[in-house]
Amino acid sequence: MKAAFTGTLTWGMVVVGLKAYPVISEGDAKIRWVHRPCLTPVSEARRCNACNLVGIPDGQRVRAVETGGRWITIEDSEFQQVMPEPETGRPITVQAMAKLAELNPLWLEKAYYLAPEAQAGRAYSLLHRVLQTEQAGAIVTFISYSRPRLGVIYAGAQGLLLRLLHYSESVRDWKAYGVELGAVVLKPDEIRMAQTFVRRQVRPFTHKTFKNEYHERLQGLIEDKLKGKVPTPPPAVPVAAKILDLTAALKASLDAVAARRGARAKEPKKAAKRKAARR
Fold it and tell me: How far is CA 21 from CA 3, 8, 28, 106, 173, in A?
C-alpha cells in the first residue's frame, strides 16, 4: 500500500525517517450514481462525459458500486433492503459495559458532548456518577446519517461524552506494513541513554500550550492585508546537522538537554542582578 505521507521525526539529535499509513480502511463499498445506458459515473451536475449529456433525469440514473473493474448496479428496491431504519426517534442501545482502559485509542473516532433533555437530569447525573466511579463506558449502537454506528458513552469532567468507535473490520493490521520490532537488536547503552533522555523531557501535559500556528499565521495575514500592510515572510528555521551514529546522537541529545537546563538555571540569577543594579 502507498504511504499517505512520509516525514522525518527529529527526536533530540536522533533522526527517524517515517512512512505514515492509515489505520482505518475505507470500510463500506463506495456507491456512485452512474448513467444507466453506459454505466459511466454521473457528476453532481448530472453530466455523463461518455455520452456528452447534461441534466440526466432520475430515470436514467442508477446507484452502482465498482468492483474488479466492473460496475454492479443497485436498484432502489434493493438499496432499501440494506439501508438501516430511519434514525428519527431511534434508540441508543447499550450493548455492554467495558473498562475504559480496555479501549484501544486506534478504535476511537469523533467525540460529542451529551446533554440531557428536559426531565432527564437526575438519570443523567446518576449515569455520569456511576461511569466515573467505575472508570467504565457504555458500549452503544445507534443509527446516524442512515448508517449503523458503534460508540462508547463515558464520564467526562463536566458531563457525559459519546465517542464513536470504528468497527473491528475497519482497523488494519500492523503486519501489512512490515513493522517487525523483534528483528532489531538494541545495544544496552542505546536503551539507557534513550530512557534518560525521555525521563528528562517528560513534564505535565498542558493542552493549551500547543497552538494552531497555521490558524494564527492565517489570521495575522488577513489582519495585515485589511490594514494595508505588506506581509513579511517568516524567518527560515535552521536545520540541525544529521548524526548518523545512533549512540552519538543520543549522547548529543543528552548534552543539549543539560545545556538548556543550565541556561534556565542562570536566568533567575541574571534577573536578580539586573534588578539590584537598577536600585
Answer: 5, 14, 19, 13, 11
Q: What is the 3-state secondary structure (H, E, C) of 201-212?
A: HCCCCCHHHCCC
Task: Classify burial at 64, counting beta carbons within 10 Å of its beta carbon; exposed 0-12, middle 13-18, buried 19 or more.
Answer: buried
Q: Are 160 and 127 in contact (CB under 8 A)?
A: yes
Distance CA 114, CA 140 (A): 13
Give pLDDT tens digits for 83-94. Answer: 766 545 568 889
The confidence band for 266, taking pLDDT boundaries of 50, 70 and 90, is low
pTM over 0.85: no
Question: Is the separation of the CB atoms in 17 and 8 below 8 Å?
Answer: yes
- Taking phi over 0 as left and psi of -120 to 50 as alpha, with beta for the rest, 108 belongs to beta
User: Distance (Å, rounded) from C-alpha 148 to C-alpha 137?
Assistant: 19
